[in-house]
Each structure stands twice: as structure tokens, then as C-alpha cells.
Specification:
- With 576 residues, the chain is α/β, with parallel strands linked by helices.
- Among the domains are: 213-386 and 393-427, Rossmann fold (3-Layer(aba) Sandwich); 429-573, GMP Synthetase, Chain A, domain 3, CATH 3.30.300.
- Helices cover 33% and strands 22% of the residues.
- The protein has a nine-stranded mixed β-sheet with strand order 2-1-11-10-12-13-14-15-16, with helices on both faces. Strands 4-3-5-6-7 form a five-stranded parallel β-sheet, with helices on both faces. Strands 17, 18, 20, 21 and 22 form a five-stranded antiparallel β-sheet that branches.
- Helix 2 crosses helix 3 (76-87).
- The chain is globular.
- The model is unreliable at 487-493 and 564-568 (pLDDT under 50).
Length: 576
Amino acid sequence: MARVDGATLVELFSRRLAESGDSPALYLPPVDSPDAAWRPITWAALADRVFRTAAALKRLGVMPGDRVVQLSENRPQWIVADLAIQFAGGVHVPIHSTLAGPQVVEQVRDCGARLVLVSTASQAEKLGGDAALCNVIDIWSYDPIGDAVSDAIGGRTVRLLSESTGDVTGEVTDAEADDVRRAALSTVGPNDIATLIYTSGTTGEPKGVMLTQRNLTTNALSALAMFDFAADDLRVGLLPLSHIYARTCDLYCWIGCGYQFALARSRETAVADCVALRPTGINAVPYFYEKVLRASQELGRPLAEMFGGRVRLCNSGGAALPNHVAEAYFAAGLPLMQGYGLTETSPVITLSTPTAHKLGAVGRAIADVEIRIADDGEILTRGPHVMRGYWNRPAATTEVLKDGWFYTGDLGEIDADGYLRITGRKKEIIVLASGKNVAPVQLESLLTEDPLIDQAMVVGDGRSYLVALLVVNGDALARATAEEPTAENRAANGDAETVLADRIARRLACVSHHEQVRRFAVLERPFSIEDGELTPTLKLRRGIIEKKYEEMIATLYDSSKHREPCAKTAESTSNP
């Protein structure tokens, strides 16, 4: 089966259909019971749903350039809707399903959506507020919702869009569906905006990133060219499609190559779904790989078996990959390839491959992508992958697009072989009271190498020393407390605190004096997406976390409650 290309997503999908129409494309999850089999559908069956949905959108009055919001977790309808919006000439605005109601309303309002697609009643409830819906001409739902939800969103009628008969696509004729398909091939152009994706807000308010058809197709095809995928490969999508990493590297690479694809049912079932489907490859974030690694060690199961036993390539992105995780996967015969990119760059800038990689590096630039390092260490890039700009934010666009180059806000260095290493983020750099600069991500990566520490956030901007908020593995800490010898100050600090302080000191033994964590606090619960502390790709929202725990952080800097900080031993404070 041949790979296909195209200047637009419409062309890409149409050529895949022509090449592979009767071949298996997408596996649908079990519906009757958790033990039921996953069911494959062909490219032709998928295309029929896409074209009928696109025709329904056109019937409703969606015009070229109209924004269509999708508020849904991963499911097959997500894929159908994305492609249907492209064939209808609309602009797809995916909103992360984990966002709270006010955040959803703000993005619906900001983009001026004409249509909203929701997955469930709970997602529909987030649309409460007439102001957000003033431009919306219709709301469609994948699951039935009750009258109470309709009342909560101003009495708006919500039409059903599902795989069952009687939904809005059932009114579409075969001729209408075919007309929409043919019209899209001649009217949708490479420079048309295909999607509007809001940034995750790690360093400020979310902004709508405008990505064109050309941005997405060239990026997917250039990324795909780096790997030797085959038509009989099966890859499982573990990341939210509302994020550009999964959108390009799972969805559009799948269309370009023609291998088989399945969406994990949820974060909670991701490992079980891999065991059931036995994929040959996956994309995921470092946190997922680290959690699976720890689980395999605790269970005494080979790492490869955790993914079904057939995986031959793992790809990592969205955050920095700790070296010890990459080394463990390689040792288990699972090449774990790190890449780098941003929403504004569609997203891929660099990739590592099984034949070209270095530990700690994020790979080399993909085809048609240029990178260089500015005098202050910032990574710049230009090429067909760079966004058109931020939606309705010309000043913000001008700040990052200069003379054809996109200023990433990340700091890095390129070695003699062209491999890029990320050394920090300009807006995340901690500047101590002494004037010393500290890259917290590096220190957090070192801390979470320890099996006792699941999550860590380092704090210290404008302060005289660093402190950390830690989420610990309670069972592992209890075992370590029982087994490890304690320091002389055991009675004063308590066993667990002494063990943690010793582990922190050991993990940071390789960094300078000013990069030591002097004091720490253990949190009662993990950082989470649902509480707004993590982005959908599990990056820390530092400002939100610091605000939430400001009293705890203040206590860590209160000298009346601690001995003088020591560079060799971190001190603890209990969680108030």
C-alpha cells in the first residue's frame, strides 16, 4: 500500500480513500462489554460517514471559514467530525474536554463559533451562558442529552449526531454527500485556515493558533518520512486529539501512510487497550512512559508486555523526556524516540529516529524546517510548519513572528551533528535573588527519576534559594522508610521526611550549589488536568500551582519555622 500526499487535508484523505478504500482503517472500541472485540472499519466506510456529516454541515449553513467547535474526548466521531469540517470548508476549533465551563465558554466566544459539537450531556452543560452562544446556529451531540441540560444552555435544541439511524446525517442523500466531496477538492486551498487551536496557557492566557491546510499536511508528511511505517502496522492513539501533537502525529500521519489505527477509550484504559490491540507503535508524553515503566517494575512484568508485546517504536513529545526513562525503554528493546515542537509549529520541528538519535537530544530538524539559535539562546524556526498567527491578536503575533522566523520561547543548543537539545524555557527560567538563572524543568526531571517522587515543581523566582512541591509514591516511600538507614536528625524530622531529604540531595548531587532544593513540601494529591494544574499534555501550569499553594510556599521561606537552609540536605514542611 502506497503512501499518499496532498496540499490539503481534503486531498490527503481523498487520495487515501482511492488507494485503500477496502482496507481496514480504524478499529472501533467494544460496545457490548469490556471483553468484546475491537471492530475494524474500512476507509470507504469511514469516508461515507465523513461525507454525509460534511453535507449535513453544509445543509445547516456552515460557510467557508465558519468556526465549528468540537468539545469531546477521543472517540471515532471526533475523527469523522474533524474531516467533515474540512470538506465543508469550515475551521475546526477543538476544545480540550477537560476544561471547566468558564474556560470553554471563553473559547467559544473568542472564536465566534457558528456550530458546537459536544460528546455528552456533561460537556453540553459547560455551554451555559447565552453570551457564548450568540453566534451559534446549532448544537449537535454524540450522546443523547436530557431536557435539563437543554434548559441549562438557554433552552437550545441539541440535535443528535451518532452512528445510529435517525440522526442529522440520515437526512443526507448519496448525491449530496458526493457533491460536497467533489466541491471540496476544488474549493479548499492550501492557504485556507484548517483549524484554530488554543494554546494550553502554561505561560499566559490561551491564544487561538491559526494553522492552515498546508501547515498540517506538510508537517505530517515530513514527520512521516522520518519513519519506516508499513500498511499492516497498528498504532494506538493515547493522547487527546484536541492537542496538535496527536492531531498531526496520530491522525494525519495515519491518513498519509494508511496503516491501521485505534483510539484508546480513556486515560484509565490506555494500557489495557494496548494489551488488547497489540499495537506496533504509539505516541505518548513522558509522564505516561514513566508511569508504565514504574508499573512494570512493581509488577515484575517485561516492559514490552505492558503494551501487548508487539511495539517496535515509541514516540515521545509534549514535554522533556527524562534520560533514565529513555535508557530503560531502549534496554527493554523498545526504542523511545523524542521529538520537539509547539502548537504554533503544527507541531513538529525536530524528531529522533531509531537510526539517528542521541540521549538527551530531541532529534534533528525534519524536511523543509529550519532552526537556529538566537544570541540569547532562544530557539527560532521557519518553514511551512509555522502558523499564520494568533486569532484576533495581531500584537501577540508580531511578538513571535519576526522576519519570517518564529520565536519559540524555548532555550536550546544545536551540536555539531545538528541535534537539538532543550535547555529551558525563557518564561520559566527562575532568577534567584543572587541573579543566578535556574532551569526548573531540568531539576524536576532529576527529582522524578527517583521512584519515590511522582511529580515535582521547583519554585524560587526572586528568592534566595529553591524549594519544591512534591507528589510522592506513598507505597514506595513507606517501603523505603522501613528499609533505609536514617540520618542523625531522624527523630527531629521523622523517618519519611529524612528519607525524602536524602533522596533529593542524592538526585541533585550533579548540579551546582545554587540549583539545590533546600526545602520541600509533600502534597496530599497529585497535580491534575481536572484541577487546572496540568495542560492536556501534562505540563505544569506554574502560575496556577504557585497561586494555589502560595501559603505553603510562604511557609517554606519562613525562617522562623526552619533551621538555616543547608545545601546538602533538603528540609521538609508538613502539608497544612
